[in-house]
Amino acid sequence: MLKLNATPVLPPYQSSENCVYTVYPCATTNRYQQYLSEIAAQGFSLYAENSIDGNLFATYIKDGCLVQTAAILSDRTFRVAVDTKTALYVNRPEPCNRVVKPALWQFETDHRLIDCGMCYVMQCADGSFFVIDSAHSYSVRDNDRLHDFLIEHTPKGQKCVIAGWYFSHGHADHICKFTDFLKYNMADVTIERLYYNFISQSHPDAEKWDAADRRFTDQFIAEVAKHPEIPVVNLHIGQRFYVRDFAFTVLCTHEEVHPASFETYNNSSTVLLCEAEGQRIFFPGDASDRSDRVLLSFYSSVFACEIMQVSHHGHMGLSPEFYKKANAPVVLFPTTQIKYDEEFDHYEANRVAVKQAKECYISANGTVKLPLPYKLGKVVRYPDETFESFTGVQNLWNYSYTPERKQELYDAYLARGGKPIEEYKNGF
Description:
Elements: E1 10-16, E2 19-25, H1 29-41, E3 45-52, E4 55-62, E5 65-72, E6 77-83, E7 103-106, E8 120-123, E9 129-132, H2 142-153, E10 160-166, H3 172-184, E11 189-191, E12 194-196, H4 211-225, E13 232-234, E14 240-243, E15 246-252, H5 254-257, E16 271-276, E17 279-283, H6 289-298, E18 307-309, H7 320-326, E19 330-333, H8 337-344, H9 348-356, E20 359-362, E21 368-371, E22 380-381, H10 390-397, H11 403-415
Parallel strand pairs: 9-10, 10-11, 10-12, 12-13, 17-18, 18-19, 19-20
Antiparallel strand pairs: 1-2, 2-6, 3-4, 4-5, 5-6, 7-8, 7-21, 8-9, 14-15, 15-16, 16-17, 21-22
Helix pairs in contact: 2-3, 3-4, 7-9
């Protein structure tokens, strides 16, 4: 196990069953180099280095153990994750034949019974895919819908290859349909790597989390364990990994949020920045207030991007200041039109993000394709596939809407190419 000649600022944090995260003081560049020398002296080899807004990051490896270091300017700390069970990330671009034009899809999850859920699909130049999250257990057939979508968009004559599947955190609306995908949709699909950093189920705050969410995370982990052929990369801050010609940078995990409370489970979200075809795309998942403090404290100029996934479905997520710095011309809301309308007036962050943007897309209104590099006005809209089950929502969540509002939403659904629904043929 790694030992450094310093007294930690914080006690070691058991961030997962196989990883310990420790924060040491680091006031100078010389001290940083001393730490790296100590790591190298213990037999670890340098695997990769990175720099973000003056912060310095390095990855070392030895006998299956990975050491991720981060020297953070703003708080003068040296942060070390010692991970004894993780696959290696790819640290340089992967050459590939360009057979398709790269693209990003905001995938319409089945929102008939649930207003959350999030799934994005990126296609690399060689026709393989990078998938982000999945959908809720209430999105009943979304593993099949996603499978069929990927098969349909795989170049003719090629096998469907998911070069990477990333999960922002372990909430049900982000992981459940992937668990089903592993169970039922793998016959004609290859998954090359999984990427995530879930907070430990034995964390002291775990008893405050929803029991169903803990159960779904356990099911996810158990199903992944049945597929040892799929490497799992445990992500840590500062890592810059490549999937074909796409580059991804990890800006924050729950390890940086510690020792703040994780009673709000969304504070365990990983924040990921993608660089594709010369453009930057932000995926904060459900990152919330604590993650926001980390991001604004650690970084200064990294936020500017062309495309922004709005955090936590537009609920209580990142701050107005974050979206001001991002200044994204395209914003993506993984939510329903109903929830978007309800919350828009309540959250300044949403209003700031939309005000600065030129284009805004809501996932429940139908899948949209953004060819990369994306030029404003070039979005490709797909027909709206699913529509709210007002009876189901009433039974599950005990809230409803006026007949006028229901009719307005249904008419808009039909206008987006949705198929008529027998239940609503006589109105509301």
